[in-house]
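Input.
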Amino acid sequence: MAPVALGGSVVRKGRSVAARIIDGTQIAAAVRREVREQVRKFRDGGSGVPGLAVILVGDDPASAAYVRSKAKACEEAGIASRQLTFPRYVSQEELTETLRNLNRDPGIHGILVQLPLPKHLDERAALEIVDPGKDVDGFTYASIGRLTENHARFVPCTPAGILELLDREKIEIAGTHAVVVGRSEIVGKPVAMLFLHRHATVTVCHSRTADLAAET
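Output.
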């Protein structure tokens, strides 16, 4: 039976469970403090400074703002951040060569390609150039396959964040019925897979779902 919202509560299998509001801001602050400490230990242990490269193509305001927030988070955590910005008309060949150089760069441990890319570029081809060992977004086919087999090295950030919130709030996942609204490659599908790996029964709803209200 799908969970049904009833005046601030959720009904599952005939029992009412009070709805909870999770303070994501507070949890995010705690995670950032922990990451900063992990980076300090990594650096003090002689392993150097972790490096993240972010590729931004074009001047989309939303993408630019998102990249700035990533750079700020890196700075706060003590991670070296390198932003490579290209005009929107950059060629596939130049983008490919840049990614290959980053793959070979020992000072770069993670690579992010900010999406979406301009229409003339092949996003999938660009993503597949990224070394799976540096694919911190978890978008390459290799990363998707590892996630499917429950051996993920990197998980897309939004699905990973959802699990982190639930775990820190000690919300049990096993045995629950999880309804995922959306089937995107970077949120909906990975979330559904993560919940399956945690022994939830998962229903995925999307634009062709006949009666969304009945499922949620």
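The chain has two domains: 24-135, 155-215.
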